[in-house]
Amino acid sequence: MKDLFQGPFFFIGLCLIVYLLACRLQRRTRQAWLNPLLVSIVSLIGILSLLKIPYAQFKEGTSAIAMMLTPATCVLAIPMVNQRKILKQNLTAILIGTFLGALTSILSVTFLCRILGLNDLITRSLLPKSVTTPIAVSVCEVNGGLPAVTVTAVIITGILGSIVIPLLFHKLKIKNSVALGITMGTASHAMGTSKAIEIGEQEGGLAGLAIGITGIFTVILSLFL
Q1: pLDDT tens across 65-119, in order?
Q2: Could you list the residue ranges that cross the membrane (predicted)?
Q3: CA distances to 8, 48, 51, 76, 185 from 2, in Å
Q4: How far apart are the C-alpha atoms of 18 and 50, rounded to whole Å?
Q5: What sign for the dihedral angle of Cα 165, 166, 171, 176?
Q6: In angstroms, rounded to a whole number, what is the distance separating the alpha carbons of residues 221 and 109?
Q7: CA 44 to CA 87: how far, in whole Å?
């Protein structure tokens, strides 16, 4: 039985099965809070705890999945190309929106960390929470933060953003696809963009562009704040 847990195929297969079941659960229930990624994380934690599998072993077995993170992020450029006409028409709004989003994110993290009495190490780790993981980890390492804390913050931010933002727009009866796309990409990076693509190709294209620009602004702002 132990030999089954030694190879990477078990862990990769486990992740895929859990995620597919989580997607099926959300499709059946149609509950926004049952985000497939959130359900998968909770389920995998439970499975690893039940089987008493060390996290280090799980991490090593799923390294192939982690390796695909950057290429998967690059694929988000496809809807950007398809919607390039709309992107050019709304470039000013995108630049202003992403800059203010990145600035608000960094300032809010700094302010809340000081209010809660968190040390500088945690603050530096949380600063890039609203950008996609490859950029966030790079910013964290440059600032001397903890990558593990950064990745956790990025995941939580992405999940919450992909759930809350569409609901908020619906409640406020905001039907502007440009505003929704920019908000999703700026506030909840790749996870928000994936959700935006589900809503519409135009929203997905705008969100994909917002990810890159927000990442650039975050890198610049983090050097001065």
Answers
A1: 777 776 766 766 676 677 677 778 888 888 898 899 999 988 999 899 999 988 8
A2: 6-25, 32-51, 63-81, 93-117, 148-169, 204-224
A3: 13, 13, 10, 39, 42
A4: 15
A5: positive
A6: 13
A7: 39
Q: Higher-confidence residue: 70 or 13?
A: 13
Q: Binning pLDDT at 50, 70 and 90, where does residue 7 land? A: low
What amino acid occupies position 93? Answer: A
**Tokens at residue 69, please?**
């993170």
Length of the chain in terms of residues written = 225
Spatial neighbors of 114 by CB under 8 A, at least 6 apart, are: 123
- pTM here is 0.76
Residue 33 has pLDDT above 90, yes or no: no
Joined together, the tokens standing for residue 174 give 């905001």
Give the Cα separation of 130 and 210 in Å (integer).
11
The C-alpha atoms of residue 123 and residue 14 are separated, in whole angstroms, by 34
- For the chain, the structural domain boundaries read 2-67, 77-224
Q: Show the tokens assigned to 98.
A: 């992403």
128, 150 in Cβ contact below 8 A? yes
Mean pLDDT of 121-147: 85
HSE-CB for 194 with a 13 A CA cutoff = 16
